Write the structure tokens for this entry.
Amino acid sequence: MRFPENAFERTGTVVATGADAMARFECGVCWHVYDPAAGDPVWQVPPGTPFATLPEHWTCPNCEATRERFLVLVDG
């Protein structure tokens, strides 16, 4: 898997920064995709919220996996 050049690891999760702040992330358990453009209506996260700024207690709205279980999706 290829990661964006400006990504860094934080507690096992690759977190996009800069131009990739609006990157989509996929749950490694159930494959649910967090898309910042859509936000998360279950957790009442407004559209335009980057993954890196989600609350620490946020979990997958589908299977309740923790943030650390999400991986950045890279187009290409």
